[in-house]
Design a protein that fits this description.
Number of strands: 0
Helix content: over 70%
Structural class: mainly alpha
Radius of gyration: 21 Å
Shape: elongated
Largest sheet: none
Order of helices and strands: HH
Length: 80
């Protein structure tokens, strides 16, 4: 009986590890995608508004991205 529990615990632990590794991998890929989008959006801002090195342009970019992230997060939370 004890061996069955141990085998069941091993299966459960293995399943948990696979799920966690999948989550971590997805998060890592999401970060890579976010960095790529960040670069693309910054380039777009440079082309639309000129040099993006001004403080006002950087704040505008930060506020815009924050609004988009909040809206997406709210949508995902409400959808649950």
């Amino acid at each position: 009986m004890e061996q069955q529990q141990t085998a069941a615990e091993k299966r459960s632990l293995r399943r948990e590890m696979v799920e966690r590794m999948s989550e971590l991998s997805a998060t890592g890929f999401g970060l890579v995608a976010a960095l790529a989008w960040n670069d693309a959006i910054q380039q777009l801002f440079k082309e639309l508004f000129g040099t993006a090195s001004t403080v006002a342009a950087k704040f505008f970019y930060a506020v815009g991205i924050t609004i988009v992230v909040v809206l997406i997060t709210r949508y995902l939370v409400i959808k649950k």
